[in-house]
């Protein structure tokens, strides 16, 4: 309905009206059409791991190992495209992976595949590196936010600039808190401890998916993990640390991070600071903190109307505190900010954004895990 009525969002008023209307009525469910869960499990993930080790990944490639996406092999297996279906769209996570010389053709090949399947291709969180290739293929762009990066050659807790972080970290150490980076395989005891921390952090909230990692023992067991324990030895916080594979000594990411609800003030500051110092000591050059939604979106006088309206809506709504807080937290550490875009065509931007929100928030893989656990529990009880 909305895609035919508004084929292209040319001004902010359309964006605002459609977004507000969809959020405030039951018609949002019209777009909540997901591929069945059984279709998501057909990929050979050992093959994916071999590919990433050969060609390298990016700041999102570890999320493929959540197993909530499908894989399309382009350019005779030289390019990997991870995607998930919602409604009539195949949403690709990040840029295609592989050798840069094959990406342009891979984008066109995937588009032909989508045309054959009668769906519309969308690329979520693409980098500026390949924008010319998307543009040549007829894609439009919407700025989603910026990825925060810590330059580890520059990062330091010495001097006046690092005083606050240094003081907080020293206080934790004096009080007996212990930081370590552990490597798989992990014991069942540790995985259970991590699960307890994760459940405490979640509370009544639900796990997200697609572009956001979620807790699963098999997933966290694939990466090094930073842990912080209290003086009594109890785990109070952790973060998984995937690397970019082929360049594994260059970039590390802080991926799934969790802390217990009763953790002391400054726990995450200490955990992050300790991770940066560890990574620096182990010769990593950069640490990714992930994308911050709406960071510096709509601020430029050259920003498109939908970007300006998106910024207005979110910064003057219940989401304002959350987005500002996330940006402020990452700004404590980040030295660089890299723009991330949505590349799309033949779609109403307003409807597409709603579908992306549903895609991230409706985690079918996590729901299956919970359902399986409950089934096992019932069988044991009987």
From TrEMBL:
N-terminal signal peptide: none
SUPFAM superfamilies: Acyl-CoA N-acyltransferases (Nat)
GO MF annotations in UniProt: aminoacyltransferase activity
Domain Phosphatidylglycerol lysyltransferase C-terminal: 50-344
Bilayer-spanning residue ranges: 12-31
Keywords, comma-separated and alphabetical: Cell membrane, Membrane, Transmembrane, Transmembrane helix
Subcellular localization: Cell membrane
Membrane topology: Multi-pass membrane protein
UniProt xrefs under Pfam families: LPG_synthase_C (PF09924)
The protein's name in its UniProt record: Phosphatidylglycerol lysyltransferase C-terminal domain-containing protein
